[in-house]
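Issue 218. Parser rejects a valid record. Input:
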Amino acid sequence: MKWMILVLVSVAAMPLWAQDVEIELAQIQQRWAEIQYQVQDRDKEKAFEKLAAEAEAFVGRYPGRAEPLIWQGIVLSTYAGAKGGLGALGLVKQARASLEAALDIDPEALDGSAYTSLGSLYYQVPGWPLGFGDDGKARKYLQKSLAINPDGIDANYFFGDFLLDQGEPQRARIYLEKVLAAPDRPGRAVADQGRRAEAQARLNNL
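Output the parser choked on:
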């Protein structure tokens, strides 16, 4: 009888546990978007440092889940961008480790966001001997993210930006224009607006 009660309690608790993950995930996503697109550049490093600590705690609360690891990787990589210099290299290595761990758990979590973020790291981080940048790996990961989420705003943005970096402006235009036409993501208005503005700026430069 006790065993049956324990089973019933566990089953009843599962949806609440999953709901907690979604609530915390939305909070991390919203705060990231606010820092990335609304906070002054001079204040971004400290804001991302604080958010990185929150993301680390988020991962610790939900071991075995890919979503917290993905967002830890995203937060660490943007924190590195705000920090700059040699100090950023340790952060991007941590970001890569988090994203690779997420892939091991569920490659399609959050519409393949781990592939998107890893791809963006590989073309933006310096290559050997300073970093681990690798354009071939970047292309592979970004194409995998597009295969999972062909209409995704981030998947198209980063592949378009990568193609610009590779000297392929006409192909880049196709993907950057898809960013402007991508469907809105529920609860991600600030991030979507910011990403579309970035895509439009690159199109204007073309």
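Fixed in the parser; the record now loads. Residues 30-145 form a domain with the Serine Threonine Protein Phosphatase 5, Tetratricopeptide repeat fold (CATH 1.25.40).
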